[in-house]
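Morning F.,

Quick status update on the modeling queue. The single chain you submitted on Monday has been processed. Sequence for confirmation:
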Amino acid sequence: MLRIIVSLAALILSMSAQAFNVDKMIIISDDKENGIVTLFNDEPHSLFVQAQVDEIQIVDGSRIERTPYTRENLNDWKVTMTHQKLVLKPGEEKDVGIRSLCKTTNCERSEDLMFLLSFSPAKYREAGEELDGVEINYGFAPVYIIPTVIPKYDYQLFNNGNSLRIENNSNTMIKVFVDTCNDENTNGCKKKFTVFAGQYKTFTLTDSMQSNELNVTVTSHDNSYSKKEKVVRGKI
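Structure tokens below.
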């Protein structure tokens, strides 16, 4: 069996238009620090799905440090999932709950807690059934975030003409909305970017998104923080 996991956007694993899917790639916990991700199976056969949790932290703007959750560090787990293994029948969808353990575990809350939830599917086979040919599976790894209770915002935006660089030194995730629409430019002129706590990202801007002055709105995950500004090309 050949298993292929495709990586996108540094933290997120995904493939578009695949038969196995998840409903979202960034999950923000609720007020009780819990969450839900929904898995879908549009394959004509059943899928066996295994889940893995990695606690992650971004270092030096781009390097990702992962701490896989295993039996050896069970006492340090900050979250758990309701299903570590499950079977999805053809056309079936199932919710997987993410439960915070911070009431029983000492959770450092000076910044967002971030976790990579990896879901790896394989064709489900009954006992004794042989594998026929090469099997290619596409996995997804949404990011689960428990936001810090004391957010501090510190970021820089750089308009490089054909790209926008965002350096997020905040202790929490930010959403960056860019709007270059005007009477002459009405299509493909708006976009949203998400940058995690401590992450530096450079996003390519299409021709319709490029402007000497970018109208930008930076918000928190729940919009409790919102700031508008113009980012001038080449200005530091």
